[in-house]
Design brief:
Blueprint lengths: L4 H12 L6 H8 L6 H13 L3 E6 L2 E6 L6 E5 L5 E4 L4 H11 L9 E4 L2 H7 L2
Parallel strand pairs: 3-5
Antiparallel strand pairs: 1-2, 3-4
Length: about 120
């Protein structure tokens, strides 16, 4: 993969981010006025194909984050769209999969959807 200035800008934004970001958020965060949204999407597709990033979806919007050795997992509120990090202890599950099914897990994704305490009280969910 060729590392263009635009790809480097997008990668830098994703490295600095503490939460998954939409393509619009990434575009704005780059500060690159010559870049457009289609360039961001093409780059995100390339990064995804290369295994550099993962995507979570909320209301048909993709949110992207780097694939680190073990990335954070999130709870996303369906009303206000706030994202909250959660601990994941899936390594025991992955070991179980390997032992019982002879399947080597290379990575995983987990996003939990629901209503945060503020929105739950507002909607009586």
């Amino acid at each position: 993969m060729r590392m263009t200035k635009q790809r480097k800008d997008i990668l830098t934004v994703l490295k600095k981010s503490t939460i998954p970001m939409s393509a619009d958020m990434i575009l704005h965060a780059t500060g690159n006025k010559s870049m457009n949204l289609s360039t961001v999407y093409r780059t995100l597709d390339t990064f995804s194909d290369e295994g550099l990033i993962s995507r979570s979806t909320l209301d048909n919007t993709g949110y992207y984050h780097l694939n680190r050795e073990h990335h954070c997992h999130y709870m996303i509120c369906l009303k206000c769209h706030k994202m909250f990090e959660i601990d994941c202890h899936i390594d025991l599950f992955e070991n179980n999969i390997h032992e019982h099914h002879d399947f080597l897990v290379t990575h995983h994704e987990m996003t939990v959807y629901g209503y945060c305490s503020d929105c739950r009280h507002d909607t009586n969910a």
